[in-house]
Design brief:
5 strands, single chain, elongated, five-stranded mixed barrel, alpha+beta
Length: 237
């Protein structure tokens, strides 16, 4: 590979990482908390590429390989730039629930219980869906007991009723898991009619699931109010 090609591809990689960081598209790949590391990586790659390019120019051009009697086809090497360009201009859709269904986020029956911090003030504070699952299973302070909360997620229509779900990524989209809670009305039924993947903002009270020996608990939200909403810019929790 010629030095001009190496430097150009290095520059394109740095620019692509910088662009998806600026536009926010990086949240389709990794958690928002990794933004500083992405920005640092982009700056380092662009800096290295520029240093190499300037160095070659000052030396009168990159060093040439001696003629060994063989023809070198560099056009194929530029195919390496195709995924980089795609990364810049094409934003992938959010993961579908089926992509995370094999590794459903649940709470182990052996997870240690502890007192969680109090919920935010207000009549029905917003609580993330994964936090609801964790508090319902392991909070010894009873912060969810008889306390209205508001949860946002997308609809999963299951044989037993409607669930509210959210895809959770620990580090990147490759480790995506699914957190869910059951949605039930005041009578314990599930009369809700929403299409799969419809985003809802739901107000209600949590009913912890009884612990079973070999089944991780999934709490139930007794619904008071349901409001369809648009999908958030960052669909992952």
């Amino acid at each position: 590979m010629r030095r001009e090609t190496e430097n150009t591809i290095l520059l394109l990689v740095g620019l692509s990482i910088g662009l998806i960081s600026l536009t926010g598209a990086f949240t389709r790949y990794v958690k928002p908390s990794l933004l500083p590391w992405l920005a640092l990586t982009a700056a380092l790659l662009v800096g290295l590429a520029l240093v190499a390019i300037v160095g070659d120019i000052r030396r009168g051009g990159p060093d040439r390989d001696p003629d060994d009697g063989h023809s070198h086809r560099t056009g194929v090497v530029w195919l390496l730039a195709v995924p980089i360009v795609v990364l810049i201009f094409v934003t992938p859709p959010a993961l579908r629930p089926q992509a995370a269904a094999r590794s459903v986020t649940t709470v182990s029956n052996n997870a240690p219980s502890r007192a969680f911090p109090p919920l935010p003030p207000g009549r029905a504070p917003e609580v993330s869906l994964p936090e609801v699952v964790m508090r319902a299973a392991n909070d010894t302070s009873g912060s969810l007991t008889n306390r209205p909360i508001t949860v946002t997620g997308f609809v999963l229509n299951e044989p037993g009723g409607v669930d509210l779900a959210r895809i959770v990524i620990i580090c990147c989209a490759a480790d995506a898991q699914l957190a869910r809670i059951h949605l039930r009305d005041r009578d314990g039924g599930s009369a809700f009619r929403f299409a799969d993947n419809t985003w809802l903002r739901v107000e209600g009270e949590v009913i912890p699931a009884p612990r079973q020996p070999h089944t991780a608990p999934i709490p139930t939200l007794r619904v008071v109010a349901v409001t369809p909403v648009g999908a958030p810019s960052n669909p992952y929790a």
